[in-house]
Specification:
The structure holds two protein chains of two kinds. By secondary structure, chain A is α+β, with helices and mostly antiparallel strands. Chain A is 28% helix and 41% strand. The chains are: A alpha+beta, B alpha+beta.
């Protein structure tokens, strides 16, 4: 462990928090890319809100989501349904997350952040990876006993027309 | 109506000898057949869904939509009447309305600023008289004859339909009494609130979507989620209704407990999985808010509308065909004025069942893609739709039936003259 002096230089604290969230997003992408959905569900707090919706809906303050989960229980049900019941063609997905911006920790320990994301999809009978979704994560993180968790992740996508089906979460 | 291309009289468009129990691939894959469908079905004697009134509540409100593949604008005029006009400038064809929805006093084509009233009349042409006595339109240019193409419009219970035909029967007659009853069970007079949209492409022929919802057989087999949690199982109280013409349908079922299904029935259903439980079971609750024996109804209203009442998640699905091999689906999810915050949340939670990421919805989209893939890669075959021979075509009270699909093709062949 580094011997970090306290109180921390605020610039260093900002840098560490940014790094911590950046690493979290890399793990999040890795879990989804490997389709380890159980691991994905554990990255949320018990009272988490997870939403995937279009920019059209978000801009109009319309609440509907392609995926709408207002608890970790629902996120678990989503993972369970996709792993045990859903029929879809096998595929590889690659989540690329960048342009992370982190706001200073607010009251109640909420940490607000945004990041751009791109999801590329490969079907096994096509040579190309297609752009499946492009958008922005609007996040609220929280430090818990089990480390950093998502209290909220709103995935707002720009490509209004979803190509056929969104089979793996964003 | 034209006869269409002579090539449709080619023997390869001959229907299989077996009749309605077979559907040949060319119905789903042929460009000339698709062209004739646009002409005779979407632009023919049909009422096409275009919008909900709740999307354009005030004068000047407009929304982009489609009739078949054709882009239109649906707008509420100054006098509160709803107009549907082609989204194509009468001058040089520019698709002038580019925003998804909004509010305006008039439509101005950005190219040469031809200006139209909300009901599609041509209001102004810049430099109509030329400059300094030179140029401009001919003296006899008729402004009245150069408006936007206007469609016939009707509404029922807040749902807006348009037609290229001026001599359409009233919508209630078009639907017929049985389909109308189900339509009015969902649109029960309460004012609608818009919860948002889903939009997706689907790489399959547009009719496959109708057929999927006239095929209750698949629902008990493909949708493990639905079956496991008792929404639909073989042996449930259910109905596959078709109207007298065969073009419209309603797939209806009443929720029951899958654990009570007889073991022999369950054995046939590979989709049924013992002991599966949800961490958040309230998401599957049905709040009985409708005057109907059914907890789930899927109404297929010819040619471009599906009305989804999947327990408490309610939605419109609008089919926008883009060619024989693909269509766009636009969903408008709604609730009712007076819904409590909790009821709205319940609808939104239950929305996880449907749409392009829905537990059921994504499976339908994938299955339809597989069908189109199959026809394109192993072409010139035919589909077998023989289930339930006791019913030649139309309404059936067993889920193990394809009679409603046969009914639809009986109508389609008549209109298409094929």
């Amino acid at each position: 462990m580094l011997d970090i002096p306290t109180p921390l230089d605020p610039r260093l604290a900002t840098l560490l928090l940014h790094h911590e969230i950046d690493q979290f997003n890399a793990r999040y992408a890795a879990a989804l890319d490997a389709q380890r959905l159980g691991e994905w569900t554990e990255m949320f707090t018990e009272d988490a809100f997870y939403l995937v919706t279009s920019r059209e809906n978000a801009d109009r303050n319309q609440p509907v989501g392609l995926i709408y989960c207002d608890s970790r229980a629902m996120i678990r049900d989503r993972a369970f349904a996709l792993e045990k019941t859903a029929m879809f063609a096998p595929r590889y997905l690659r989540h690329i997350i960048g342009n992370l911006m982190v706001q200073p920790e607010g009251e109640m320990g909420d940490i607000r952040a945004t990041a751009n994301y791109v999801v590329l999809q490969v079907l096994f009978d096509r040579p190309d990876a297609t752009l499946h979704q492009i958008g922005v994560y609007h996040d609220i993180f929280r430090h818990t006993q089990d480390g950093l968790k998502l209290r909220e992740r709103r995935c707002i996508y720009d490509n209004l027309l979803v190509p056929n089906a969104l089979c793996i979460p964003v | 109506m034209t006869d269409g291309p002579a090539k449709l009289r080619d023997p390869r468009y001959r229907w299989p000898e077996a009749g309605l129990t077979r559907v040949p691939d060319w119905v789903y894959t042929d460009a000339a057949v698709y062209q004739r469908e646009v002409e005779r079905i979407f632009h023919g004697q049909t009422w096409n869904y275009v919008a909900l009134e709740a999307e354009i509540p005030n004068p000047g409100d407009f929304i982009r939509s489609n009739v078949g593949p054709t882009p239109v604008v649906v707008v509420r005029g100054a006098g509160n009447a709803i107009h549907v006009v082609e989204n194509r400038c009468a001058h040089r064809a520019a698709e002038f309305c580019r925003t998804l929805s909004g509010t305006t006093k008039e439509f101005v084509c950005p190219y040469h600023q031809w200006t139209y009233t909300l009901d599609g009349g041509l209001k102004a042409v810049p430099f109509r008289r030329g400059v300094a006595g030179k140029g401009g339109m001919p003296a006899d240019f008729d402004m009245q004859a150069r408006g936007l193409k206007r469609l016939n419009v009707t509404t029922h219970r807040g749902v807006v339909f348009a037609s290229y035909a001026d001599d359409m029967e009233p919508l209630t007659e078009y639907l017929g009494p049985e389909i109308l009853r189900e339509f009015e069970a969902t649109f029960d007079g309460r004012c609608l609130t818009i919860l948002g949209h889903y939009r997706h492409t689907l790489p399959g022929n547009w009719k496959l979507y109708h057929e999927n919802l006239k095929d209750p057989y698949h629902a008990t087999l493909l949708h493990t989620f639905l079956v496991t949690f008792g929404l639909l199982v073989a042996g449930n109280k259910s109905l596959m209704l078709a109207d007298a013409t065969g073009r419209h349908g309603v797939m209806a079922s009443a929720k029951s407990d899958a654990t009570k299904v007889a073991a022999d029935v369950r054995g046939e259903m590979r989709a049924y999985k013992e002991g599966m439980t949800l961490a958040e079971p309230r998401f599957m609750d049905f709040v009985d808010e409708f005057d109907s024996p059914w907890s789930v109804t899927m109404a297929t209203i010819w040619p471009n509308l599906i009305v989804q009442r999947e327990m408490n998640t309610l939605g419109i699905r609008q089919i926008v065909p883009t060619g024989p091999h693909e269509f766009i689906m636009k969903w408008t999810m709604f609730g009712f004025e007076g819904d409590s915050e909790e009821m709205t949340r319940h609808r939104l939670r239950q929305g996880n069942l449907m749409g392009p990421a829905g537990f059921l919805g994504l499976e339908d989209n994938e299955a339809i893609k597989f069908v189109q893939d199959g026809m394109q890669r192993v072409p010139d075959g035919e589909h077998v739709v023989e289930l339930d021979p006791q019913t030649a075509y139309g309404t059936s009270d067993t889920l193990i039936s394809e009679a409603a699909i046969r009914g639809m093709y009986r109508h389609w062949r008549e209109v298409m003259d094929l």
